[in-house]
Amino acid sequence: MTDFKCIINGMIKQLRLKDYILIDELTANFDSGLNIITGETGAGKSILINAIDLVFAPRVSKEVIKTGSEKAVIELVIENKKQDLTKFFDQNGIENWGSELVISKEITPNAVRSRINGTLVNTDLLKSLRSVFIDIHSQHQTYSFMQPKYHICLLDSYGKDAYGQKLTEYKELFSQYLTLLSELDRAKNSVEVTESQLDFLKFQINEIESAQIQSETEDEELSAELEVLENAEKLKELTGASYWALNGDEGSVIEALNKIKANVSKAASFDGKLSDIEQALVEASEALREVGSDLNRYSRNLENDTERLNLIQERLFELDKLKRKYGGTLADVLSTYQKLSDELSGIEFSTQNVEELERKISDIKKQLEEKASVISDYRKDFANVLSVQIQDKLELLELPKSRFKIDVRQKELSSDGIDEVEFLISTNVSEDMKPLAKVASGGEISRVMLAIKSIFAENDDIDTVIFDEIDTGISGRASQSVADEILSLSKFHQIILITHQAIIASKSDKHFYVRKSQTDETKVEVYVLTGENKIKALAELAGGEINEQSIEFARALVAVNHQ
């Protein structure tokens, strides 16, 4: 499969939904810059974000199909802005549609079909594509970010250009190390086989080997030959009688056929229509002569070979004995022989190679420790740099008294090295730094997440960053600082963001409003707001209702953003 990190870049241009959850049909055209999604609580704002995520998902619930519909369709149009995708299309048998990449998913009660540019593709392809094309922040991802096991991945992602290749080489060597440990374990277990067990194993191998089985069907072939030898007299009698019936001196079949042939031949001299019948009789006569010769030859060659009969019976007895002990067929016996031989070879190999394996393991472990030490030094350096950058971002996001540190501690040699990485934070001067999950509030976590994502977005090739309510738990000056950071991020990346904050929403390049209506059925509709409609939406976000004061505040927000 193609390495997407080398070739895939772009932005989300359009999202189309049909019969998806509560949506009949929807087309949302996104722009570069900051795309804001607002709406009342419970209106279904996350439906758009979830649909984008679902396009790339390996599994999809049939529950997304709108009630009463046969299928749901999600289609994502990506505008490629940077790279030539020709190689990617060719390697995966996908039609090249120029600068557009169209990813679609059709969900029915019985199947889910994924396509790129109209070509059916597997879920692995889409999963790999998602990881490098979009970055979605959701509440689930917040939970992941708080887990220490995820922190080492973030740090390694940040330092990938400096030590990513070294880490890859380390992991490959560690995989070899685990394989050798497994081989050593098997070898030691094999060496522990008792002398009596080894003798019995050799006896079984020798018993099968001594039989010199010719083929998997030797018993069937011998049984067929035995059947002939046991009935030789009867066969001789039957075939001899058949020969004389065909070829005897008087009253034989061939004699009668010759008379018929002579009569038809004479008749054919009067009527040419009988010539075909005459020819058929000639051929029949010749065929019967050949059959007669074959029967005569078979009968004369049959002998009562008592010695051969006895040999076959003894051989079949020997083969039956083997089949009872080692399998129901000769194929099973031969398979058992191979397994026993492999087992013996493994024991003999293990006895000779335990010390060699231990030496190899010792050498590789030494190499791993040296490589892990180098990687650890890189991690500590980048942890310091990233800690400072995150702390600086947190100050900009109205957490001026916070302290942030990426703690790198040593652990036992493992698949990712010798480091245990954990994010520590203190949001109050009087408190010591503690694990992120145990200290930060909801609003603080949101800002830590935004700080991390802002730094990573500045250093990767992902063009679209999606935030599902990154402003949870913040207000006042913190909202303004978050808004400024998001706006700054949108200068270099396409941002799609759900928010409840008027200050953040006011900075949008494009504003989507989600509304849920309930008449005979529940529906979700999406509108693009401009002009006065946008002012009213901002006013409602700011004051909870639209009045003169909230309208004035909303106008002031928009005016500030256009200065």
Describe the structure.
- It is built from 19 helices and 15 strands.
- It has 563 residues and is of the alpha/beta class.
- Among the domains are: 1-137 and 462-563, Rossmann fold, CATH 3.40.50.300; 217-328.
- It has a six-stranded antiparallel beta sheet, covered by helices on one side. Strands 8-12-13-3-14-15 form a six-stranded mixed beta sheet.
- A hairpin with a 3-residue loop joins strand 14 (510-518) and strand 15.
TL;DR?
By secondary structure, this protein is α/β, with parallel strands linked by helices. It has 19 helices and 15 strands. It has helices spanning 46-56, 86-91, 123-133, 139-146, 148-158, 160-191, 195-211, 218-230, 232-247, 253-270, 275-301, 306-326, 330-396, 436-439, 442-457, 476-490, 502-505, 531-543, 548-561; strands at 11-20, 23-29, 34-39, 72-79, 100-107, 112-116, 119-120, 134-137, 403-414, 417-426, 434-435, 464-468, 494-498, 510-518, 522-529.
Summarize model confidence as the mean pLDDT.
84
Q: Low-confidence runs (pLDDT<50, min 5 residues)? A: 1-9
Strands of the largest sheet, in order across it? 2-1-4-5-6-7
Share of residues in strands: 15-25%
**CATH structural fold name of the domain at 1-137 and 462-563:** Rossmann fold
Question: Helical element count?
Answer: 19
The rounded distance between the terminal residues' Cα atoms is 49 Å
CATH superfamily of the domain at 1-137 and 462-563: P-loop containing nucleotide triphosphate hydrolases
- This entry's quaternary arrangement is single chain
Instruction: Tell me the CATH architecture of the domain at 1-137 and 462-563.
Output: 3-Layer(aba) Sandwich
Report Rg.
42 Å
